[in-house]
Task: structure prediction
Amino acid sequence: MSGIDWKLLAGVRERQKTVAMGVVARDRSAAEQSRAELQQAQAWQQQQVLDKARHWQATAGALSGGQCSVAQLRHAGAWSGALDARIAQAGHFAAQAGQAHAQREQTLDASRQKLRAASGEVEKAQRMQQRARAEAVRVQEQRLDEAAEETASQAWAARRPA
Result:
C-alpha cells in the first residue's frame, strides 16, 4: 500500500474521537443544566399564575361575604396588575430559558454528529491498518514463496548433469 503510517493515523483518529467524546459530555452537561433552568423558569411562571388565581379567589371570597370595601377592591385590582407584571416577567424568563435550552440541544446534537464522524474515521483507519498489515503479510509470504522456488530451482540446476 502507500507510505501512510496507518497505526499513527489510527492513533490520531482515536485521540480525535476521545476529544469529541469529551465535547459531547460537556455539551450534555450544559444541556441538562439548561433544561433544569428552563424547568425552574416554567415553575416560577406557573407559581405566579397560581398566586394571581389565589389572589382573586380570596378577593371573590371577601366580596361574597360582604367584607370588601371599594378601597380594598381597588387595592386588589392594583395587586392584580402587579401580579400580571410578574407573570409577564416570568414568561419572558421562561422564553429566554427555552431559547437557551434549544441552543444547547442543537450544540449537543452537533457535537454528537462530530463524535459519530470521528468514530467512523477511527474505524476506517483501523480497517486500513488491518488491510496494510494483511498486504504486508501477503507480500512477505509471496517473497518467501519466490525465494523457496528460486532455491529449489537452483538446487535442481545444481544436481542436473551438465
User: Anything to note?
Assistant: The chain has a mean pLDDT of 93. DSSP finds two helices and no strands in the chain. The first helix runs from residue 6 to 64. Residues 17 and 26 are 14 Å apart (CA to CA).
